[in-house]
């Protein structure tokens, strides 16, 4: 007989909710961080984030004032930081949708404690991402005229055979649907917040956003479907978004860009980097916000496993790219993959990428590292770095050595490029800190539901046992 | 429950070992052998037609078996509990991969009739000959055979260990065996993933040795996985109708298999579309010939049939909730998918032999039935005398009361 | 203000609001109350409860149909927009690809289908639910706030002239832990 195990799992898996909880304790513990005043730590972080945001404002103003000539990119490297950061941020957003939608469809119970958090990340990451192509157009105030099909007197329409117009639709759809999905999930939680807060003003404001939700059974019946279908729609959507981002490259004929594995490989990379970003934020947040009882070691371990899997997929992508570059017998492809990437001027970025994306996640084969908080935090940050390097490789390394050696040219970013990048990190952090302050970071209603489910399950398990 | 088991929560399952399937093993196996012999006769009479037909059949059935191994490993790696009750059929489908080591022999013998790179004719053109010389270190007869044996050995080893541990657990109920299956299920995935990808390169992509596509391995895998899930839907449907699973498999399980079929039908479409779009829009002369032939005059209708039959039709049908919960109706859709997956493999292979247009040879039928029936007979024989569900799996109770 | 009170013809809606101890009790109670002949029955819970649709006697959910219509509308709008722009109104030769290039049209068609389907799911739900609705008579109950936190409530709207005391007794008989009568306030 196995030792009497508190969890009914014969393999003694870690619990999803720790301690003895009731709806009331979950409600209160998950709302504390919203209801109490901002602490010193929060203000300090917020200050840092705001100063980085200031840098963003300066960089944007300078770009708009002087034009995008102040960026480092120039022919043949026509795309550089603007697109690298765009792809990087969009990819980060994908973890949120993956957690909230795909894991919901696969009935993964562990998603409930982290989905709200990750969905918020999606929204903020997409906002950061959107800035870059918008600024890249040079004159964003004309962007609508170029990008959106609207009947102008000139009777000129967008050219829909271009992947850049697909991008406009993909990213704006993605942002809209993510926002709707996030808000729909938030409505019952806002109602809980409305009823929990003692302050009249907060009650009014949260009440306003709760839309008069009263937990009606008739509403729940439709709500469940609306939420599930939004999840169902988000799943192909999230695949399509990064697929279309990959089309931006793969529809061209540049060696290193044009390869058919790009769509799934970009999606895997996006999820990989997104989970790394979730980990980067979740580990401190669960500590400082007191969420350890609902974001348990099991959640962290599962996320590490997903990073391992998606890291392997990314590695598979690298392998296929290299193999087919050789197999194709195309000298430009071979030159790109076997000379430029490994030995060219940007080789250190490529080697960093290989190390961070392929080697680092391998430590998660071992349970010891999968459940060690310092290890996973460092690994997550390294993976963020690695995935940024990957986009740098794809965008810059491919462009700066393409066909004719006479048109090769090296690339270096300017201070504006760097400030824009750091600035968006500031924008992201600002929005995220505000989110942590004003919105329940954990999907309260779903955790309560999970608790009921687990409790019911325990009863059943107990009966079989007896 | 006896005290010997280390799993106090396993439900007591009143189920006798599986004794059915004699007709499949004896009758099906004999018929399969007859069809195989007919195909071999065809190989003597018109070798190119017959060997191409055999390649289609081999890639089809072996793909399903390898995809089943992957499916089983994914189930283990994700610690899925709901599928415990239908894991045995998957294990058996996966175990059938061993027979393909034997069934590969005709391909090894006949490869010079199939692959132009074995002995490139001198009038192929300078550029093509240069490319083939470049690829010689990879595309050569010895490497082809050695690699194929390696792919199949990897798959056989994985399925053999997983099935073996599962059977041992039927007797001993050791919980540790579940842990082992999970570890191997996760740890083996990179190996089998690479095996099936390069198998697709070797067996199918090298038919046009100057053509290449990085996503081809994923394409082959995705189609095979849909077919494997469809076969699972049919097998479990038949098993339920004959009460093989002791009534433990419910509409919920069938429903979930249907959902997976829907998801991977979309996945196949996604991969197929991505490959098509990228090659079409870039329009590079070294890539487009593949589609020019396959959407050319004589083959266009097959390509169109694939778009409708491999995506629109199953997608629309599988959207229905009530259909997915009905084993018979799901089985009909699954049968259609199995058929259209054959069309898919046929469309990948045969245009290399008949670029001018669709043509069906009688060996297409005999090879399909021969390889298929032999593989099925082998698979069913692996199940006979064993329990049709893993009776002492620690998560069986979870699976029984599965209600999403 | 107060003078107009009698003239306005305002008749306050009345609700019996009852609390149940557990979700299971609520399900059983709901069934009993409905069997007792009450029409406008609703439940109020912090989480969705399995089997509530059946207990409330609700029909098939309408959202899936709405979403399907949204998706089909999205497909039609997107494809015809692309066709109109790039084939009819402003044909332009791009690297000699045909004016009507189906593979290139699929991404936007898909995105718009998802956008309209998702939008109809979201807005369809709020329309069906009649939300946002900042005021509802049931909020007059002091206890009712806990329906958003950890309590399970049943509400019955009483028709004009119905006997409130009998309704309260019926609800208690159905297993309610407590029950009260609330009136809509006039505003």
Protein described:
The complex is a heterotrimer of chains A (466), B (404) and C (187). Chain A is mostly helical and 466 residues long. Helices cover 71% and strands 0% of the residues of chain A. Chain C has 6 helices and 4 strands. In chain C, α4 (63-89) packs antiparallel against α5 (102-129). The radius of gyration of chain C is 25 Å and the shape is elongated. Residues 1-5 of chain C have low confidence and may be disordered. Chains in contact: A-B, A-C, B-C. At the A-C interface, α1, α6, α8 and α16 of A face β2, α3, α4 and α5 of C.
Secondary structure tally, helices of chain C:
6
Largest sheet of chain C: 4 strands, antiparallel
* Morphology of chain C: elongated
Biggest β-sheet of chain B: count, sense, barrel?
Answer: none
| Oligomerization status of the protein chains | heterotrimer
Q: What are the low-pLDDT stretches of chain B, counting only 5+ consecutive residues below 50?
A: 1-6
Structural classification of chain C:
alpha+beta
Can you lay out the helices and strands and say which pair or pack?
The complex is a heterotrimer of chains A (466), B (404) and C (187).
Chain A: H1 23-35, H2 40-66, H3 81-105, H4 115-136, H5 143-147, H6 163-196, H7 200-209, H8 217-250, H9 262-288, H10 297-328, H11 331-343, H12 347-359, H13 367-370, H14 373-400, H15 415-438, H16 444-465
Chain B: H1 22-45, H2 47-77, H3 87-95, H4 99-103, H5 105-114, H6 126-135, H7 141-172, H8 176-187, H9 189-203, H10 216-241, H11 251-282, H12 289-294, H13 300-319, H14 321-324, H15 327-349, H16 362-383, H17 396-400
Chain C: H1 4-7, E1 14-20, H2 23-35, E2 41-44, H3 52-56, H4 63-89, H5 102-129, E3 152-158, H6 164-173, E4 178-183
Antiparallel strand pairs in C: 1-3, 1-4, 2-3
Summarize the structure.
The complex is a heterotrimer of chains A (466), B (404) and C (187). By secondary structure, chain B is an all-alpha fold.
